[in-house]
Predict the structure.
Amino acid sequence: MNVSHEISLLVEEIQRLGCKNDKGQTSVKFGVLFSDDRCANIFEALVGTLKAAKKQKIIDFQGELLLQGVHDNVDVVLLEE
């Protein structure tokens, strides 16, 4: 899969699993995204896809890298719907 296709799939999954925050942006906890069975089947490297999407300013999250367990409560925010 190419990166842009994986990012578009990531956007769909954030919309499916997330909810609107106080700014009207869709947000999901990293732990929810990481532990979701459907996401596990779609993404070979979820963290890499998240990093690429952040670099393109499609999503935002605190820090540079998200790790399971340590960052489960970090919000992944969709900047573009």
